[in-house]
Amino acid sequence: MRPRAPALYRISRALRIAATLALVLILLFVGLAFYSAAQVRPKFDPHSSTGFVLASNGTAHLTATLNLSNPGFFAIAPISVALQLHYPDGSLLALGGSPTVEVAPGATGVVPVSLWVPLSSATATLLTQDQNLTAHLWANLTYATLFHLQLTALNNLSWGAPFEGFSATPGTPQPQSNGTVLVPVQITFRNDASFDVVGTLTVTIADAQGAACSTTPVTIDTLKGSSFGQTLSFYLSGGCNPSGGTIVATYSGNGLTYAFPPEAIP
Amino acid sequence: MSAPEGTAAEGGAPPRAVEAPTPPLSVPPVAAEPPPGFRIPSLARRLTIGVLTGVALFFVLVILPTEALSRLAELSVGFTTQVPVGAIELSGTAIALLYAARPVVAPMRAYGPVYAAGALVSLGYLLYLAPLAWVALGMGEVGIALGFGGLLTLLAIVPLLSIGAGIVTTLEDFARPGERVRYQYRVAY
């Protein structure tokens, strides 16, 4: 039998062996992690996105689904997506993103990405003017506990305004035999949005002092991609002089109430 | 630094063989307890191993990463990293030198401290790099950044264990000079 080595020598040797073993195991882990990571396949589901839809709270809502196939040996945990939408001048318009999702090894994870665009007076240009917006995307994920990956992407996003080119144009006032004055007002716009515009358009003619002379509500149901054109007839009493006044149109629908900029009556 | 007491001379004498009486044909020989024989490799051999270790480590720790960083920086892929090249060169060289010294001083009392010092520098290097361990590539409007600080922190286990081994070796060498060498260079019978 070989003589037993002294305790200190054995401890030192055991520590050296443990260090070597740890190094080998870590290197194997890294190799396996890279091999597994190479198997991950992200894929945006083209059928999951329906473009912007008008939500009932007056926001335009965009959803898309990212499918992550993870056939490897390690979990993707966590993964999250953050989105920012900017006006062409760079100012921030809207925020979005995904919840934090974990994708187990050997599974396919679904990352739902949402973006909410507030439609209000503060974002009036979105209602009446098509825009080329900039979408900024960040995706953060941790793979195999040790590796952090951050993806950033900048993308242009075309925004179609639901009331593109909105105009309320007054025609020539025509005195009527009964003493009233007929003022025709032509309302036109094109729905360039990816959702239908359904609601009520209330058009009011006000005199130069701002007092309402006549109001006419119009129900509108304009399909996406189609145009709206209608001439409204306002019969004003003799006591109301529209000259120098304004036409004020207000849209109400889908939780949204928006007053278009007043159009002057010559 | 001198070789510990009780060691054989460098390139020393072969271990003493035990002469057992010729056994009967039918009975297998019973080996007597051999005294611990050991043979310390010559200085030239230890130097050769040390130089080879140092060169290999210098290549892996200094040349390879700095060359990779400079090549990536030359590519038009918007490569950025926080890892300082100066730290790689300095720490890599120090680690390569200390690891190269290990086999050279292995029979001496300096082995434990040198072993621990190499591991300590490695540990410091890993922990220094861990929070800076990000590499990023930008291609047009798409960017990708990889952080591997967690891996470097996990790798710190290796030098941590090695520091322990170095400290124990130092204790052993100072408490019982020559004891380790007899076992480290033990000749198998």
Walkthrough of the structure:
The complex is a heterodimer of chains A (266) and B (189). Chain A is built from two helices and 18 strands. With 266 residues, chain A is mostly beta strands. Chain A folds into two domains: 41-159, Immunoglobulin-like; 164-264, Immunoglobulin-like. In chain A, the strands form three sheets. In chain A, strands 1, 2, 3, 4, 5, 6, 7, 8 and 9 form a nine-stranded antiparallel β-sheet that branches. In chain A, strands 13, 14, 16, 17 and 18 form a five-stranded antiparallel β-sheet that branches. In chain A, strands 10, 11, 12 and 15 form a four-stranded antiparallel β-sheet that branches. The longest helix of chain A has 31 residues, at 7-37. With 189 residues, chain B is mainly α. Chain B has one domain (40-175). Chain B has helices at 43-74, 85-105, 111-129, 149-155, 157-175, 179-184, and strands at 80-81, 134-139, 142-147. In chain B, strand 2 (134-139) and strand 3 (142-147) form a beta hairpin. Classes of the chains: A mainly beta (266), B mainly alpha (189). Chains A and B meet through helix 1 and strand 9 of A and strand 3, helix 4, helix 5 and helix 6 of B.
